Amino acid sequence: MNDLPTLDLTGKKALVIGGAGGGIGTSITLSLVAAGSHVSVITDDQKHAEDIVGEVSKNGQKIQVRVVDVTEEKAFSNELDEIIGESGPFDHLVNVVGGAGVHDWSRAKDYELETFDRILSRNLRYALVSCQRIASALIQCSQAGSVVNISSIATRAVPLLAGYGAAKAGLEALSRTMAAEWGPYGIRVNVVAPGTVKTPRAGQNNLEEASKNIPLQRRAEPQDIADAVLFLLSDRANYITGQTLVVDGGATLGTAGDNLPVFVTNPEVRKQFD
To answer: How far are the Cα atoms of 24, 30, 151, 204, 259 from residue 158, in angstroms, in the given order?
Structure first.
């Protein structure tokens, strides 16, 4: 029985890109620390960096945090090279950074290429860079590892999110290709696709209305997503690669038939289309 795979990541090194901010990234970081992993975090916000360090230190633990914008590709690449050079290969990588800002929502017929490029940079391009760097270091030293990329159910067609959905669909396709190519080296690559999640960036209005069309009758907590990520990183998932785990409370099982999704609770977004 002692040989059964566990969720214990004691001694493993993990890099969480977007591992702060009080939402999904923070929950993933804290879950990895609780599982015994040595965690490094990249965030683009100094305040978020200070917050996650403080949160982890409450239990007498430490993490390494670096502040850099992943869309600044040269600076981001240099930061990755530096952190890998200092820490050595990472056993685990989680790419959390992504999302769509208030002004990134648009009808498809009106979608501007500038917005599209910005969305791709924030949700897809950086993930290729980080996966390449982490995998190359692992392959060079013949070490196995695992990667989880955070996607979204927006890949399945959500009105107003053409660019975001396309970027996340690209991330899922990229992840499958990397899983196929890197599997022989013992590197697993999987995806977690959340539905609507209660995070600081999400609007907090219309929560009851937003839950009516979710079979489990609630929006996800960040910890729901973190639990899925931890599973896929762990040895419990050591024969799973190239897969997308949808964590949406069943939301993609059906639709409200509303061209303005009820889970769009940010009033600044809704007023553009109501």
So the answer is: 21, 30, 13, 19, 9
Q: What is the pTM of this model?
A: 0.89
Question: What would the two tokens of residue 21 be?
Answer: 């901010």
How far apart are the C-alpha atoms of 55 and 67, rounded to whole Å?
17
Cα distance between residue 183 and residue 263, in whole Å: 37
Q: Which residue carries 């890998």 as its tokens?
A: 84
Strand partners, 15: 40, 93
The residue with tokens 């600076």 is 75
Q: What residues form DSSP beta bridges with 149?
A: 95, 191
Query: Is-catalytic flag, 239?
Result: no
Interatomic CA distance for residues 255 and 57, integer angstroms: 43
Catalytic residue among 62, 74, 168, 212: 168
Give me the residues paired with residue 65 across strands: 41
Choosing from 12, 111, 126, 164, which is the catalytic residue?
164
DSSP notation for 239-259: T--S-EEEESTTGGG-----S
Instruction: Quick: pLDDT tens for 205-260.
Output: 556 666 777 888 888 899 999 999 999 999 999 999 999 999 999 888 865 445 55
Taking only the tens place, the pLDDT of each residue in 246-262 is 999 988 886 544 555 65
Q: How many CB atoms lie within 10 A of CB 230?
A: 25
Residue whose tokens read 């995806």: 191
Alpha-carbon gap, residue 221 to 247, rounded angstroms = 10
Among this protein's residues, is 168 annotated catalytic? yes
Sheet holding 145-150, edge to edge: 64-67, 38-43, 13-17, 92-95, 145-150, 187-194, 244-247
